[in-house]
């Protein structure tokens, strides 16, 4: 019998080469290539002469009219929001996050809620003993929930145990990097093992209709550890985020085959576990200082949810040859573009100033609608003029200095009016588009239009609005 040839596989992308090299030519990662046996990985049995596959039946596209897939709601509203209204039976979800961020706490709370409703829920831990999981549940006040626990890492044993008895509604695997399968001849945590274990669990979910949640570790740059092919194999990828020293936690959908990918769930870490935040805007603005130069409130959107956050800017004279530019919670390239527009079309001189920009509360803003709020904060800090405490801003800034309209203006204005804001600065075209439409903001909300960035600079510099128009006049 011929000796199987070894291959070298990249642990980041799964690319195989015939020899070891320090840098992967496929993904560019360094020191991620390790040696694996040639007859290992998915399809290894076929390479070793396993029996042929079975013949399965094929369905017709013109068959019965499909019905909407029923969803399993967990009772945790923020988790159901991110998943698109609950879990779809037979789906597989990959949950990633930094160590200690609260992944296990969130999943135990969701498992306890489902198990209390009469569903079979199984929690498989590959990192902790059963007693450790019990202690965590007792600290959260969930010790009486009928959740089935096990500490196991063999995928074959896990699948055989789950197939015995009543079909489980939810299975949690914590974590996928600790699982191993006999089909792959390599150590747990390698590309082949992670991919093979994930494939076996995905097959179990699709054939039984159980929902499987795979917990994944993250690398130093925030990416889920292991091969990226696992993210393509699962139905949804959810990221659990948070900053050190803050109790705020954000659950964000990166991929979702059964729902939107731009929804976020907001939680607050407490002594009794994760508490849902029903009004994130009030939380982000709770510690806001009134009448402070360099602070502007941005009326943003996260999926279908309007969200108000404070953008803070500090513009200070620099003694360095190259002034500093520091950004937290926003795109640094976007800040560079806004600074260039303010210099070219707003008449500001920012080349000899250190500039710091931060989104308060730990939220990361990615939509272009934050351009106008960031520009207002920068102008306010440079001029020393405080913006009105009851004013919000949103709008996209073009390279020509024009202020462009953005989507969901009515929802942004409605959220601002609900939280007590009395004034909003929007693009001029935005006012024409939203006037007369349903879902208009409150009658006492005054909308100031801004067509060009130079108008915003002039209004903030003199401290009194020039172009305002009340909703009552529309």
TrEMBL record:
One of its GO terms (molecular function) is ATP binding. It comes from the Bacteria. GO terms for biological process: recombinational repair. ATP binds at residues 97-104. SUPFAM superfamilies: P-loop containing nucleoside triphosphate hydrolases (SSF52540), Ribosomal protein S5 domain 2-like (SSF54211). Residues 354-474 are annotated as: Lon-protease-like. Belongs to the RecA family. RadA subfamily. This is DNA repair protein RadA. It comes from Methylocapsa palsarum.
């Amino acid at each position: 019998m011929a000796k199987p040839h070894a291959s070298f596989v990249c642990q980041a992308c799964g690319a195989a080469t015939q020899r070891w090299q320090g840098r992967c030519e496929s993904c560019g990662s360094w020191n991620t290539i390790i040696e694996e046996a040639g007859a290992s990985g998915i399809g290894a049995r076929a390479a070793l002469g396993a029996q042929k596959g079975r013949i399965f039946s094929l369905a017709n596209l013109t068959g019965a009219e499909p019905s909407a897939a029923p969803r399993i709601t967990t009772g945790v509203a923020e988790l159901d929001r991110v998943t698109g209204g609950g879990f779809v039976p037979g789906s597989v979800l990959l949950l990633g996050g930094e160590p200690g961020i609260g992944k296990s706490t969130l999943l135990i709370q969701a498992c306890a809620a489902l198990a209390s409703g009469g569903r079979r829920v199984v929690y498989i831990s590959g990192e902790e003993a059963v007693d450790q999981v019990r202690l965590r549940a007792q600290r959260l006040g969930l010790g009486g929930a009928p959740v089935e626990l096990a500490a196991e890492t063999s995928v074959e044993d896990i699948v055989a145990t789950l197939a015995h008895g009543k079909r489980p509604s939810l299975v949690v695997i914590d974590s996928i990097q600790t699982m191993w399968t006999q089909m792959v001849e390599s150590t747990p945590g390698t590309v082949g093992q992670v991919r093979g274990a994930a494939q076996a669990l995905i097959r179990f979910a699709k054939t039984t209709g159980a929902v499987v949640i795979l917990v994944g570790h993250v690398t130093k740059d925030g990416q889920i550890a292991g091969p990226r092919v696992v993210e393509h194999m699962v139905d949804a990828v959810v990221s659990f985020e948070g900053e050190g020293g803050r109790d705020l936690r954000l659950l964000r959908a990166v991929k979702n085959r059964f729902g939107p990918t731009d929804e976020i769930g907001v939680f607050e870490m407490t002594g009794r576990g994760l508490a849902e935040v029903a009004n994130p805007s009030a939380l982000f603005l709770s510690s806001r200082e009134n009448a402070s130069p360099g602070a502007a409130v941005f009326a943003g959107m996260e999926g279908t949810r309007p969200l108000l956050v404070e953008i803070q800017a500090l513009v200070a004279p620099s003694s360095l040859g190259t002034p500093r530019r520091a950004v937290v919670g926003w795109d640094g390239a976007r800040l560079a573009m806004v600074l260039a527009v303010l210099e070219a079309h707003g008449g500001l001189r920012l080349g000899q100033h250190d500039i710091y920009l931060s989104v308060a509360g730990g939220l990361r803003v990615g939509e272009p609608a934050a351009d106008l709020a960031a520009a207002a904060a920068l102008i306010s800090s440079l001029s020393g003029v405080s913006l009105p405490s009851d004013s919000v801003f949103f709008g996209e800034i073009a390279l020509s200095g024009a202020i462009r309209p953005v989507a969901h203006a009515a929802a942004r204005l409605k959220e601002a009016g609900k939280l007590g804001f009395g004034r909003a600065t929007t693009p001029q075209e935005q006012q024409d588009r939203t006037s007369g439409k349903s879902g208009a903001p409150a009658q006492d909300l005054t909308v100031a239009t801004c067509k060009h960035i130079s108008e915003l600079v002039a209004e903030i510099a003199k401290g009194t609005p020039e172009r305002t128009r009340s909703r009552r006049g529309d």
